[in-house]
UniProtKB/TrEMBL annotation:
Converts protoheme IX and farnesyl diphosphate to heme O. The chain crosses the membrane at residues 262-280, 287-306, 312-332, 360-379, 447-464. It comes from the Eukaryota. Keywords: Heme biosynthesis, Membrane, Mitochondrion, Transferase, Transit peptide, Transmembrane, Transmembrane helix. Belongs to the ubiA prenyltransferase family. The keyword Zinc does not apply. This is Protoheme IX farnesyltransferase, mitochondrial. One of its GO terms (molecular function) is protoheme IX farnesyltransferase activity. It is an enzyme of class 2 (transferase). It is found in: Mitochondrion membrane. InterPro entries: Protohaem_IX_farnesylTrfase, Protohaem_IX_farnesylTrfase_mt, UbiA_prenyltransferase, UbiA_prenylTrfase_CS, UbiA_sf. Its EC number is 2.5.1.-. CDD domains: PT_UbiA_Cox10.
C-alpha cells in the first residue's frame, strides 16, 4: 500500500513538471512574439511623440485621443521589456490580466500634427480630423445630388418603324404570302422576296399617311395616344415624307420584282386606305366596309404574283379576308366605342350596337361557304373544308354570344353620326348594363381575340391542305390520275 502511494506521488510530480515545462515554453514564445510587436511599434511611437510636441489649435474628441494615447504609451513603455527574463514576463502577463479596466479619461486631448510636419516621407499632413469632427468649421459639405432616373433612349429609326404599324403590316404581309403560296404554280424565292418587301413598304406607307392625317384625333384616344406623331417624336410632314419614300420604293419593288398588276394593286391600296377610308372614318359608318376592301387586296396581290386574277381561288381568298374584318374590327371598336365617339369617329359600335353585332355575326357565318369554295375550286383539298369549319364554328359561336347581348340595343345615331335623339345620354362603357359595358365588353374581347387567332389558323390550314400538297405521300387523286 505504501509503495502504491509513493508511485502515485511520483507520477503526480512527473505530470506537474511536464505541465510546468509546457507552460514555460509557451510563456517564452509569448514573450518573443510580444517583443517583436514592441519593436515594430517603437519607431512609430517615437515619431508620434515628436509630432505631439508641436502645438495645434484643433483637437479631436477626448475619448478618441485617450484611446490613441493609451495604445501608443503602453507600446513605448513596454519596449524596455524585450530583455526581461521569462519569470518577469510571466509576472507582467499575470498583472495585466488581473488589472481592472480603466475608464476613459476626459482630459489631455491628443494634438493633431501641424500642417508643416512630415511623417515618414509623406507630404505635410492637413488637419483632416479637425475638419471632420468640427461642427463650426466654415467648410460645408455639399450633399450628393440624386441622379435623374434613366429613361430608355429610343433609336432614331424607332418612330419610323412605329409609323408602319408593325403588327398590322405583318398581318397584311402574311395574307399576301399565304395567297402566293396557294397558287397552283410553282413559287420562286426571288419573286416571294420582292412580294414581301413591296407589300411591307406599301402597307407601311399607307399607315404613315393615316397617322400623319389623324394625329390630332389620335391624341384623344387611349389606344392611339402613344403613336409617334402624337408624342411629337416626329412631325406630320416627316410622316408624309417617310410615306412618300416608302410607297415609291414599295411600288417599284412590286413592279420590277413581281409584275405591273401587283404594283398597281399595291399603289391603289395606299390611296384607298390613306385617302378614302381615312376620310370616311369621320363621316359615315360605311368606312368599315371600305376598310374591309383594303384588307382584301393583299390576297389578290399574292395571287396575281404568279397566277391570273380570273381564277376563282383569288376572289375566294379575298372574300375570306374581307369577311374576317367585320368580327375583328366590330369587336375591337365596341370595346372603345366611347373613345371613338368623343374623338369624332363614326362607327357602328356606338351609333347602332345592334347593327354592329349583327354584321359581325353575319360575316362570321359567311366564312363557312368561302372556305368550302376554296376546296370546291381546287385551291385546297376537301379536308380543309372540314378543318376550317371547326375553326369557323368556334369564331361564329363567339360572334353569336356577342350578338345576343346587343340584339335589342337601340339605335343612337344615323349612318353619318347625327344623333336621333339630341337629348340622349350615353352610358359609360364601364357600367354593367347590357349593351353598355360590363359583361358585353367581355364578349367583345373574346370575339376580338378569337378573330386574332382565327385568321392565322385558317391560312395555315389552307397551306397545309393545298391541292396536291401531299401527293408525294398519298399519291394523286383518282380524277387527277386520268
Amino acid at each position: 500500500m505504501l509503495l502504491y502511494k509513493i508511485s502515485s506521488a511520483r507520477a503526480t510530480l512527473s505530470q506537474q513538471k511536464s505541465l510546468k515545462l509546457v507552460l514555460n515554453n509557451g510563456l517564452r514564445s509569448f514573450g518573443s512574439e510580444k517583443s517583436r510587436r514592441r519593436r515594430r511599434f517603437s519607431s512609430t511611437s517615437a515619431l508620434l511623440a515628436n509630432s505631439a510636441s508641436s502645438t495645434a489649435p484643433n483637437t479631436i474628441p477626448d475619448f478618441l485621443s485617450n484611446t490613441f494615447l493609451s495604445t501608443f504609451t503602453s507600446s513605448t513603455k513596454n519596449s524596455s521589456n524585450d530583455t526581461k527574463p521569462e519569470s518577469a514576463v510571466a509576472a507582467d502577463v499575470d498583472a495585466t490580466a488581473a488589472a481592472p479596466v480603466a475608464s476613459f479619461p476626459t482630459t489631455t486631448p491628443f494634438p493633431i500634427p501641424s500642417a508643416d510636419s512630415n511623417v515618414i516621407g509623406r507630404p505635410p499632413v492637413e488637419d483632416f480630423a479637425a475638419k471632420a469632427f468640427s461642427c463650426t468649421d466654415a467648410q460645408t459639405v455639399t450633399p450628393r445630388s440624386r441622379s435623374k432616373p434613366r429613361t430608355k433612349e429610343l433609336s432614331p429609326i424607332a418612330p419610323y418603324i412605329a409609323l408602319t404599324k408593325p403588327r398590322l403590316t405583318a398581318l397584311v404581309v402574311l395574307s399576301a404570302m399565304s395567297s402566293y403560296a396557294l397558287t397552283p404554280y410553282d413559287a420562286t424565292l426571288s419573286q416571294l422576296m420582292f412580294l414581301t418587301l413591296g407589300t411591307t413598304l406599301t402597307s407601311g406607307a399607307a399607315n404613315a399617311i393615316n397617322m400623319g392625317r389623324e394625329h390630332i384625333f389620335d391624341g384623344l384616344m387611349t389606344r392611339t395616344r402613344a403613336r409617334p406623331v402624337v408624342r411629337k417624336l416626329i412631325t406630320p410632314n416627316d410622316a408624309f415624307t417617310f410615306a412618300g419614300v416608302s410607297g415609291t420604293l414599295g411600288v417599284a419593288a412590286l413592279y420590277f420584282g413581281v409584275n405591273p398588276t401587283v404594283a398597281l394593286l399595291g399603289g391603289a391600296n395606299i390611296a384607298l386606305y390613306s385617302g378614302l377610308y381615312t376620310t370616311l372614318k369621320r363621316r359615315s359608318i360605311t368606312n368599315t366596309w371600305v376598310g374591309a376592301v383594303v384588307g382584301a387586296v393583299p390576297p389578290l396581290m399574292g395571287w396575281a404574283a404568279s397566277s391570273s386574277l380570273s381564277d376563282p381561288g383569288a376572289w375566294f381568298l379575298a372574300g375570306l379576308l374581307y369577311a374576317w374584318q367585320f368580327p375583328h374590327f366590330n369587336a375591337l371598336s365596341y370595346s372603345i366605342r366611347d373613345e371613338y365617339r368623343r374623338a369624332g369617329y363614326v362607327m357602328t359600335a356606338w351609333t347602332s350596337p345592334a347593327l354592329n353585332a349583327r354584321v359581325a355575326l353575319r360575316y362570321s357565318i359567311a366564312m363557312f361557304p368561302l372556305c368550302i369554295g376554296l376546296s370546291y375550286f381546287g385551291v385546297t383539298d376537301w379536308v380543309f373544308a372540314l378543318d376550317s369549319s371547326i375553326v369557323n364554328g368556334w369564331l361564329t359561336y363567339q360572334a353569336y354570344k356577342f350578338w345576343l347581348e346587343h340584339r335589342n340595343s337601340p339605335k343612337v345615331a344615323n349612318h353619318n353620326g347625327q344623333l336621333i335623339d339630341p337629348n340622349y345620354k350615353f352610358k359609360s362603357s364601364s357600367s354593367g348594363s347590357a349593351g353598355s359595358g360590363g359583361a358585353s365588353n367581355g364578349f367583345a374581347r373574346k370575339l376580338f381575340w378569337g378573330s386574332v387567332i382565327h385568321l392565322p389558323a385558317v391560312l395555315v390550314l389552307a397551306m397545309m391542305h393545298k391541292k396536291g400538297q401531299w401527293d408525294w405521300l398519298f399519291g394523286p387523286d383518282e380524277e387527277e390520275a386520268f
